[in-house]
Structure formats: structure tokens, C-alpha cells
Amino acid sequence: MIAAAVLAALAMICAVAAWRLTFARWTWRAPRTAILLWQSLGLTWGLASIGALLAFALDPYRKGIVHGFAEFLLSVEFGARQPYDYLRLAALIAGLALLAVLVTLPLAAGAQTLRARRRHRLLLSLVARDEPAVPGVRVVDFPGAAAYCLPGLKSEVVISDGTLHLLSSAELEAVLAHEAAHVRERHDLVLLPFAALRRALPWSRLVRDAQASVELLVEMAADDRARQRCCPRRLATALLRFGASAALPTPQGALGVSAPSSVMARVDRLVRPEVTLPAAHRFLILAISVVLAISAPLLWLLPG
């Protein structure tokens, strides 16, 4: 019962920390560090929630979760009497069901994203063209503003003809640097678990706010990478131009340069950059993330 109580408390701590993190603004000063913390909180919450249910259900075996579950399977195979009441049986079913949901949903979301990208790449092969002025970028003949990337083994950056006319050369360079950062750092993989969790818990405001926070941090991380190669004010003016021109929505499975809900926060951060988070603070947050990430698996492995 001690393991179940500890895991339940750990899951609650992660939920409260995630709720507080949705309101935090220090994350804007160190978006990559904050993304790692978000990933650690999400992973730990899932493992701790499942572990609390399984630890309670398997407590009669006095062998912990992993060894207790192995003992449970052996007893089922050999027809031994199960030391269960209905409450523990319900906890076992709930824990296994939650495990199945949290494993299958990201896999299903990933498969759906891959299919959407494959269809979009096929469409681009028919309608997009190469432009000598922007080598390595696919250009679509469309008057509206659009700029996005399709990550993957064969990543592509796509812009519309309207974007070429909308942005100056310096602004276009900043936008392309932003998209290159998305591709290089595989931000699509960062967002995938949060999108899957949103599907699992569509009614949860906390999950919705967490996904929005991580999406904003991903854009800020790409902005930081782009500002190393270009003037941050050019990226800020490009974002404003996209916002004023009613930029097209980003296709499914792609990462765009401009999300209307986050433009002003990003512009303000680009034109008035805050002092970055001190190295000691970043190290402390990384240490907390590591401790969180290994705590739940250790509690799963420890014998009763």
C-alpha cells in the first residue's frame, strides 16, 4: 500500500505542477528547458497514475508492480486462487486500461500524422515547384500567405507564392530559419504526446492548457534558433505581416510559422528580449526533470 500511496501522491504532484506551469512566465526565458520539464511531468504523471492503480491491485502479492504482475500472470496460467476482492480487480482493470490508452493513442496519432504527411507530399509533388530565389524550398502558387514545414526522414519546407510577395528578403530568411529549426529539432515529436493526451482527455482543461503552453514554447524555441541566424526584428515583422494578412491554417501534420493565438507574445519577446534564465536555475530544473522521469519507473521496479 505504501507504493500505491507514493505513486498516487507523485501523480497528484505532477498534476499540480503542470497546472502551475501553465501560468508560469519564466518558461519564456528558457523554452527548451521548460519543454523538457513538461515532457518529464507528462511521462511521470502517466506512469505514476497507472502505477498507483496497479500497485494497489497487486499489493496482496507483496512483490511490487512488475514482480507482482508476473506472479499474477503465473497464478492465472496455473489456475491458482486469486487473492482479490472486487475493488482490487477493478483497480487492475483500470490500470491496464489506462496503460493501453496512453500507449495506443500516441501510436495512433503518429500513424494518422504520417498518413496525412504522405498525402500532402503527394499533393505537393503535383502542385509545388522549386524556386531559384529560395533553393531547397517548395513553392505553391497561391496568393494567400503560408509557410510551414513537413518534418520526417525527408523533410520539406513549403511557402506560398503570396508569401514571396508579402515578405522582404530579410523577413523571408527569418521565416525559413524558423522552419528549419522546427525540422532540425523535431518539434513534431515533442507535440505528439500532448496531442494524444488531449484526445484521451478532451474534457480536461488542464490538458488543453498544457498542450497550448507546449505549442507556444516550441514556437519560441524555434524563434530562438532562428534569431541566431537572422535579425529577430525581421522575424517579428514577418509574424505581424502573417497575422495582418490572415495567414492560411497549417495543414495537418505540419508545423507553421504563425499561430494567431501566440503571435503577439512571440513578437513582444523578439523585440524586447528578456534576460535568459541563469545557468544555475536551468541546471536545477533539468535535475528536477531527471529525478521526476526516473522516479516512477524505479517505483515500478522496486519489489514489495
TrEMBL record:
<dbReference type="Pfam" id="PF01435">
    <property type="entry name" value="Peptidase_M48"/>
</dbReference>
<keyword id="KW-0472">Membrane</keyword>
<keyword id="KW-0479">Metal-binding</keyword>
<keyword id="KW-1133">Transmembrane helix</keyword>
<keyword id="KW-0812">Transmembrane</keyword>
<keyword id="KW-0482">Metalloprotease</keyword>
<feature type="transmembrane region" description="Helical">
    <location>
        <begin position="283"/>
        <end position="302"/>
    </location>
</feature>
<protein>
    <submittedName>
        <fullName>M56 family metallopeptidase</fullName>
    </submittedName>
</protein>
<comment type="similarity">
    <text>Belongs to the peptidase M48 family.</text>
</comment>
<dbReference type="InterPro" id="IPR001915">
    <property type="entry name" value="Peptidase_M48"/>
</dbReference>
<feature type="transmembrane region" description="Helical">
    <location>
        <begin position="34"/>
        <end position="57"/>
    </location>
</feature>
<feature type="transmembrane region" description="Helical">
    <location>
        <begin position="86"/>
        <end position="111"/>
    </location>
</feature>
<keyword id="KW-0645">Protease</keyword>
<keyword id="KW-0378">Hydrolase</keyword>
<feature type="domain" description="Peptidase M48">
    <location>
        <begin position="117"/>
        <end position="193"/>
    </location>
</feature>
<keyword id="KW-0862">Zinc</keyword>
<dbReference type="InterPro" id="IPR052173">
    <property type="entry name" value="Beta-lactam_resp_regulator"/>
</dbReference>
